[in-house]
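Protocol step 4 of 6: record predicted structures for both targets in the notebook before any analysis. Target 1:
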Amino acid sequence: MTKLNKPRKLVSIAIALGMVFTSLAIMPIAAEETIMNYSDISLSGGFQAGNFEEVWDITKSDLVLTFTVDLNGMVDDSGAHAWSEFGVRTVGYGNFNPTWEVEGAGVWLATDYDWSANTFDPDPLGIPTLDLDDKLILQKAGGCGEGDYNLPSIPPNPLANHAVWFDRDGVDQWQALNWGAIDNVTYNTGGTYDVIITLHSTSDTSGEAYMTINGRPQGFYVPNWHSGPADLMPAGMTFTGDMKQMQAFYGLYGDGAVHTVSFENIEIEGTLYVPSINEAKEYIGDNISHQGIVNGLIAKLNAAAKQFEKGEENTANNILMAFINEVEAQKGKKIPPDIADKLIRWAEAWIEYPELAI
């Protein structure tokens, strides 16, 4: 996805408000947390995948991914099948099944559907039935299924679940009385689902994930389905990866037909990763081609770092303000706008949180 210039996170220094961006918007919600809203993503194939540029640090705050997935473009003809994914993975991994059968790079929504040909066809006229259409699960390794859920404990029967399988059309009057059968939530979904994935870190390399579909937490019955709430609910899973270096990604893989999937109303709330000044210097050298600008910016960062090391935060902040002014002056000229926005956001964070600078 090509993104337009985006505004940056706001901190204590004065920045004008009220700007509207059609591709991406950003606003502050707390001292370190940020909400970012992205334009809709539509994938088609075959295979198509991508990721957003922003890097998130889940150790600083929970990360919440909110979006709607429209699966009406999935084809259920004989010999055709497709899967889609949306979630987070450690920087540097791929954008579909970041790992396969072994965890270690993040966690994501994986969608599937019943393998019966034409499973999406409407129920026979006048005879609605609770059938299996769409399946939505958390996944921390490609090829894995419901058995990977392990919060609050491993389900003894992963097939006895709630808010995992959904019916696109109606049910009869008796099925509608079953616990968990909710109109426009678990049935009559029309193939469109509102998803919220909440991620919490338990260390720098481990975390916990929970997901709601159409407002319903997922769950599992013990030992088998019975009328009433699921015994293990809300159900989630542990996952691993670099919790300080996570990017949101999306993907589609299918065969036997041209499939489509849309991710809409995408909002991500959390804390953006902020590098140290030394790491930022490397980024500047790698991403700005004008050597004079590179030398000037790095000199300012070196000077600011020395002041931080001496405990002279006011002096360091003044140097960083000069750094911001130089980047602003060269934005769209000798510094690409997206790189300029990132450098300014980092400098603002160092001013606000000096411990991040060195």
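Target 2:
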Amino acid sequence: MAIKVGIPRALLYYRFYPLWKTFFTELGAEVIVSEPTTQEIFKKGLKKFVGDTCLPIKMVFGHVITLADKVDYLFIPRLVSIERDTCLCPHFAGLPDVLCAIMPDLPPILDIHFNVRKKGATMKSIYEAGKRFNKNPFKVYRAYQKAQREYEKFLKRIKDGITPQEAIKIFDGEEVSPPEKKKGGLNIALIGNPYTVYDSFSSLDIIQRLRKLGARIYTSEMIPDEIIEEKVRTLSKKIYWSFGKETVGSAFHFLDSPEIDGLIYIISFECGPDSLLKEIVDDKARKNKRVAYMSLVIDEHTGETGMDTRLDAFIEMIKRRRAKK
């Protein structure tokens, strides 16, 4: 009987799920993913965790609770850095400890330490993650190679113009129809942390709401890495947050792009890095007024009516600007 590994549908699930699932599956494990976030899942987690932190971190607890009685292991990696010159929010590194302290009866947690800033640490972490399923390092390495190939396919699909949500569905074998291109439609760019933008609960399904308003969506993941690096080099100081660099670099690109009509920055309330990065993006947007710009700060109290009102007004403003031109 295959060992069951649970992956919460939260945080970096929206960036690395195809890599993680392929790796564990190749080693003979069965991967179980929690259901998409709902109000019920969120409330389950909130009963266990009450603290001053951002919405994405709060949501993890509900997903973990829904998986706890279905799996043999929970995969909650201890993420320090995923790039050599940046680091992640400290909440990622401390999350396994917080979960164990609050819910000591959870299944064993695979809290593998990932810090690519240390030489040789990546392969060591990969073996640590795989040895519980197969102690042969060559088989673990082959599983990782297969996972990397699947992950590259996943990234290519996004570069070709679909969202990470849609690319994950294709990876899981679902049929995804390409977004309808409406004549005269608007090109709207969305930026922000992936675990905020692509979770339909936290973002109130903003992508589908914008598409219903006739917009075509562009995201940070669609921008080549070299363009993002080029844009952030124009800043006087380096950005050390992984997704912060991606957010600012893609924002600068979209604000300079003649194809983009509007830019929306989705920010999670109580996110420290976002509060600082917003000032950088705001300043750029003020200097480049050709692209309409709006920031949306969200938390568990954000309502659908308020979201619809702001999006309707934003799209209407862009249409009026276009009509004047």
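Step 5 preliminary note on target 2. The longest strand covers residues 262-268. Strands lie at 4-7, 30-33, 73-75, 78-81, 109-110, 113-115, 186-191, 215-219, 262-268, 292-298.
Proceed to step 6 after PI sign-off.
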